[in-house]
Amino acid sequence: MSVRAIIITGPTASGKTSCAIKLAHKLDGEIISCDSMQIYKHMDIGTAKPDEAEKEGVPHHLMDFLDPWEEYSVAQYGPDATNAILDVASRGKTPILCGGTGLYVNCLVDNIRYDTLNLDTVKEKNLTDEYTQYACENGPEALHDLLKGWDPQAASEIHYNNVKRVVRACTLYSLTEMTLAERNALSRSEPAPVDYTVYCVDRPRDELYERINLRVDIMMQQGLLDEVYRLLQICHHEGKELSKTARQAIGYKEIFEYMNPDTGKLRTEDISTVADNIKQASRRYAKRQLTWMRKPQWVNWITAEDLLKKYGISD
After folding, report:
1. What is the distance, to the nearest Å, from the Cα of residue 165 to the centroid of all Cα atoms in its chain?
2. 3-class SS string, the chain
3. pLDDT per position in the chain (315 positions), as tens?
4. Which of 67, 84, 114, 301 sits between 20 and 30 A of 73, alpha carbons compared?
């Protein structure tokens, strides 16, 4: 019989983490992160990573385990998360996954194993760099047009402004000469070892956007600007550059645009602009998350209050 696991996903600032921790207490569970940015050390405030007090003693896995200059992909996440789930279940605990990275959730529930493709890592990196450069020189729409000619289904599922995903799709097609549908069919050839129940925490759009705006204000008050500067200093001390993934984190990239790299300071008149830009980017990200979550039939939409009631938890 498959191991059973619960996934709590949803847009940023929807209240996923709070629900997951309460559920973990109720079900004697442990939490496995499903967030592509909370994997990095030293990126705490901007990724809304729960601190030790917020974790309330609940063990967390696949969080805070990579240096910020290290690359990490969904191809690595799938096996890592599956191993963590099986480990938690083997100790009689309930595996509860929490996070809003759609690709991570999708690879688990649909049992997409990218490692079955046996990719040439050197060629993969070269192609990734090549297509990234192509997008820089010709624009994201031109790169998206390339993908549209090779793999119309993949192109229809990825907006041209999501350059990272378009680059990835072009790279995979060039490496495998297979479409997204063909690769997924191959990677799903083995039965899934885990049976997932997926909940998406739902909130009215206006309320969600208010929560996002408030969260950004709190992040700025908590010292997000200082955290970003410390992050750059840590990388500089190690002689490293931030990974491409970490550099795209919302909150960090908006600050990089205005920050003096030598002093780590922003002009006073730019601080409110940066905060507004982070809010806008976060709202747009939430909208993309919601669009993705509406596609799979296995997503159960539920309010945070109703999710807790379902498991007999009084908020």
Report:
1. 12
2. CCEEEEEEECCCCCCHHHHHHHHHHHHCEEEEECCCCCCECCCCCCCCCCCHHHHCCCCEECCCCECCCCCCCHHHHHHHHHHHHHHHHHCCCEEEEECCCHHHHHHHHCCCCHHHHCCCHHHHHHHHHHHHHHHHHHCHHHHHHHHHHHCHHHHHHCCCCCHHHHHHHHHHHHHHCCCHHHHHHHHCCCCCCEEEEEEEECCCHHHHHHHHHHHHHHHHHHCHHHHHHHHHHHHHHCCCCCCHHHHCCCCHHHHHHHCCCCCCCCCHHHHHHHHHHHHHHHHHHHHHHHHHHCCCCCEEEECHHHHHHHCCCCC
3. 479 999 999 999 999 999 999 999 999 999 999 999 999 999 999 999 999 999 999 999 999 999 999 988 888 899 999 999 999 999 999 999 999 999 899 989 988 876 666 677 788 889 999 999 999 999 999 999 999 999 999 999 898 988 988 998 999 899 888 888 887 777 666 777 899 999 999 999 999 999 999 999 999 999 999 999 999 999 999 999 999 889 889 999 999 999 987 788 888 889 999 999 999 999 999 999 999 999 899 999 999 999 999 999 986
4. 301
